[in-house]
Amino acid sequence: AQIRYSIPEELTRGAFVGNIAKDLGTDVAKLAAANLQVLSDSDSQYFSVNVNTGVIMVSERIDREQLCGQNPRCFLHLKLAIENPVEFYRIEVEILDINDNPPEFPSDEVSLRIYELASLGARFPIQPAQDPDVGTNTLQTYHLSANENFNLNVKARTDGGKFPELVLERALDRELRAFHHLVLTAEDGGSPPQSSKTRITIQVLDANDNHPVFDRPSYGARLVENSPLGTLVVKLNATDVDEGPNGDIRYSLSSHNSAALRQIFAIDEQTGEIRVQGNLDFEEATVYEIEVEAKDMGSPTMEEHCSVVVEITDVNDNAPEVILTSFSSSLSEDAPPGTVVAVIHVRDRDSGEQGSVQCHVSPDLPFQLRKDYEHQYSLLTSTHLDREHVAYYNVTVSASDLGRPPLSHHTILPIALADVNDNAPQFEQASYEVLVAENNPVGSVLVTVSAADPDSEQNSRLSYSILPAGGTDPGLDPTRYLSIHPTSGQVSAKLPFDYEQTTYLQFHVEVSDGGSPALRNRTLVHVFIVDQNDNAPRVHFPRAGEDSATQFRISPSTAPPALITKVVAIDADSGRNAWLSYHLVEATDPGLFSVALRSGEIRITRALQETDASAHELLVVVRDAGEPPLSTAVTLVVLVEEKGPEALQGSEARATDGGGLPMITLYLIVSLVLISTVSLVGLAALAVRCL
């Protein structure tokens, strides 16, 4: 079972709390016999039980504030133990608060320092009074002594605490009253109520009650961008009617200004002059708004603010920029006109006409600019390209603005033309004429044909070949006599030439490049075989065998300059090598006969005498004009005899031969002249071509 009692705090010892025997409905004698004991939960034994009467009494002083503090309810718990049988009873004693504590301030005196220009409604907190009682016995209200300037406001917290604060209701004026003395009373709700007081002394501090005043609420200025350092922006003017330090003004840039603005402008704290100390760039900012403050030197200082609006005027200080959005540095030479090479974006950070950009390229180049839209151009090919004519272009794109003076920017675009196989190889000569001495050594280089291809790399790699003859005669096929190196173009002899068999040979050399498909070209090569003196003259008349002489008979009466005979020889060579001369080298009587140098006619030079020999042996040498000359010798025997039958027949024979010899000589001379003329004409034509 549980029994509850309520008693006020601060009861005297022996004060009655309750009758346990009555409340339990038990006989007092029975409680005494049951060995009644009182057990307390606390360390102190605040209560005792009279076993004879069953009354619970206060045995010690009970201070509720000490036991429970600010808790609204306070309890002490007891346990009663009895024997026979053993039983326990719980007793709860509520300790009721009494108004035994007045509110108390932390200090009997409070000092405040308030500036005379404190704002109306300003609040000044006062340390609150403390009352350990609870409920209505605790602190309930404050009272402020009567005054003209301050009112009392009490703030209540959710935990029940109350905090006093002074509220300025009327402006202070230190010059009228320097100190104010107030009394603050704290009162609880007990019956009777208890209270305490504290004295408040307020010192009115002299204030810098006149702030600086600018002659204008705001200032304006206009500057040209890139103004030199130190340029004056504006001179501020502020005044303060206070005297002494309170009227001494210092100018400064407000902390509201950005760090970047502080790097551009500076202010003289004494004169208020704002000057340029950094770079003014219209493209970064067109307007600057500078917050300026003017402070006096009073304590506390007073300040005033104004703004300075600085407009920046643009100048043409930014050249246009050329940005390549797309660009191909390699372009096929067969690209059609209108092919896009690059896409160009242009911009100018200036404004107005100074920011308007025009682009152009040189009209001498096969490129043009097309304006796609504002600030974008396309670089196009304007004509057909030829890498062999120009393989590489440096296209200068010039961008100019419309400022005065205009600024420009030049960007060079390197464009290389990629080769296509659009050019056939070209020989250096349309035809070649070659003089080759007969009997040339095998493998000797007769001529080197050379071709050029203006294409590049594989498209310009050339290969030479000799085309076979188109006829059916294999003897005329040039590949039988000649070969050509496929890369150098050197034409070499596979066989030695013989002028007497071949005097002239012509053939075609074809050159092809390495492109796909390959392009080809041809040239004609004329080979003239030059005669060498490799054939000695051959005597056709008179015919004689080896180691034998031809005999001729003449009459003793033969008179000079009778023609005895004529030596006829032919040389298989041509030209000077075939020009023959006849010489009488040996004779029995050197003065009796003579030989014509060119015709080979042998004539008698004087009349025969009886003393002359009857037989005369003549050694005639036929020599050509070659270098070195070649010759052939023939031996003639002239017999001097009277005419007889044989002599007559011999005479007829001579007459017949003599009649035929002049015609043969004429034919030989005409043939030699024609051959010599053709040779000279050929040599002259070759010399002209070489020049």
From TrEMBL:
Annotated compartments: Cell membrane
UniProtKB keywords: Calcium, Cell adhesion, Cell membrane, Glycoprotein, Membrane, Repeat, Signal, Transmembrane, Transmembrane helix
GO molecular function, one term: calcium ion binding
Transmembrane segments annotated in the record for this chain: 664-688
One GO process term, biological-process aspect: homophilic cell adhesion via plasma membrane adhesion molecules
Pfam families assigned to the protein according to its UniProt record, in alphabetical order: Cadherin, Cadherin_2
Superkingdom of source: Eukaryota
PROSITE patterns: CADHERIN_1, CADHERIN_2
SMART domains linked to this entry: CA
SUPFAM superfamilies: Cadherin-like
All residue ranges annotated as the Cadherin domain in the record: 6-105, 106-214, 215-322, 323-427, 428-539, 546-664
Single GO cellular component term: plasma membrane
Membrane topology category: Single-pass type I membrane protein
Gene3D superfamilies: Cadherins
Full protein name: Protocadherin gamma-C3
Organism: Cochlearius cochlearius
Top-level taxonomy: Eukaryota, Metazoa, Chordata, Craniata, Vertebrata
Gene: Pcdhgc5_1
